[in-house]
What does this fold into?
Amino acid sequence: MQIIKATIIKDGKILLRDRVGLFMMFFMPILLVIVITSVQNSTFELVNNNKISLLVFNKDKGPMGAQMVDAIRKIGLFKLQLADSTSSDQNLVATMHNQDALVALVIPRQFTAFIENKAGEIATRALKDPDSSQIKSDAPAILPDSLIMYYHPVMQSSFRQSIEGAFRSSVQVIQGEAIVKKLYEAVNQKEVPADLEKQILFSQVPISKIPVSRSGSRTVPNASQHNVPAWTIFAMFFIVISLGGTMVREKNSGSFIRLKTMPASYLHALFSKQIVYLTVTILQAAVIFAIGNKIFPYLGLPALHLPKDGWALFIVTAVTGYCAVNYAICVGVFANTPEQSNGFGAISILIMAALGGLIVPSFAMPAHLQNILQISPLHWALEAYYGLFLEGGKLKDIWMNILSLLGITVLIQIFTLYGLKKKNLI
It folds into this structure.
């Protein structure tokens, strides 16, 4: 016990002298979490709160063009601005840039004529034999000038398709309304009463949107719930820069050889490093979580809501930190220079973060990577944290993730012992 105590004190003093390492282990992760959360929160607000700036060029002189504008406005997705319908395409693009509009929609001439003729054709076919060759309609086969959507090149494909779907829905609403009117007029020989028209068109089944969590909470997770746990894991694993470099310097300075001449095993030194740096990783998580919970609201960011099961949160943090420490020791054992340790350690953590779902969500990865990501300890740590932070789960809900993370840790330890024996360090 005295040996363990002495080595812990020694490793603690070495760590405190490494000011650059402490800076990278605490300040840099905090800065990273704040920056990433700020960026993600802006995206969340764009999707959930902010409206997309939309320019509408209505060249149609009939009622359908105005109804199209109203239908788009009712969607609630756009901050709608009407532009001069006589503008040319060059003026349109210039207006988009001047008003910082991401999207512009041109409603063409004859839009009303096309909708009315198409509705009349459909109503006629519905009231007669659809296979009759005597059915004739004056509706044009295609719209002479189609709806044109201009968009900023930076807009992602999925976002663009959502906007296009909103426009299509608006057209369908207008066309459906026109068809109902034509059918009613054909059957009753009079216009549709306003109250009946409203009842037919807007008596839709309501859809309730309820987020599902293990705890039964209906709170929608914010950007902090997503990002703080993920990048805390990243910070814990980045102790490879400090611990891995320390391991290499001790090997090169002959500390390992001197340990062999003493009545102590090198495993005591490894155990000491595990305790010291495990404490550091737990402190890292505690500091970052505290900042997310207490300081984020003062920075204009959503507060991090901590899980109710604090014991489960501590276990996940301790197991994740223990895995990170053992990985750093493994890198330090096999590296021959601090440059090798720092370079390989940093790049490998980035790769495991990418595979683990920290950078790109795992569900968005290609099929051939879905199985590979399971070898990343960061994946299992992230799943465990998300089970607590996003789903409101408890320890019993995430124990498989914890066991998987412990299994990977044991494999890392075995590989480390193999490296120690191969290099005659134990």
The chain has a mean pLDDT of 79. The beta strands are 52-58, 78-82, 103-107, 148-151. The chain is about 65% helix and 5% strand. The first strand starts at residue 52 and ends at 58.
